[in-house]
């Protein structure tokens, strides 16, 4: 004898919640890209972003050497 079919209620996702989730994922992907770019994993064009961040640290007075 087969088990009776069960229905599962799927909660509705509001457009605002969906937009916030997509924005969060986008920001996290952008952050991962920037970190990868900074470390030279994404770009072979050099260390432009790394040097920019390095100079920014110096401008803020943060020791890095």
From TrEMBL:
Answer whether the UniProt record assigns the keyword Transmembrane helix to this protein: yes
Question: What is any Pfam family matched here?
Answer: CbtB
Q: Which UniProt keywords apply?
A: Membrane, Transmembrane, Transmembrane helix
Spell out where the chain crosses the membrane: 17-37
This one is known as Putative cobalt transporter subunit CbtB
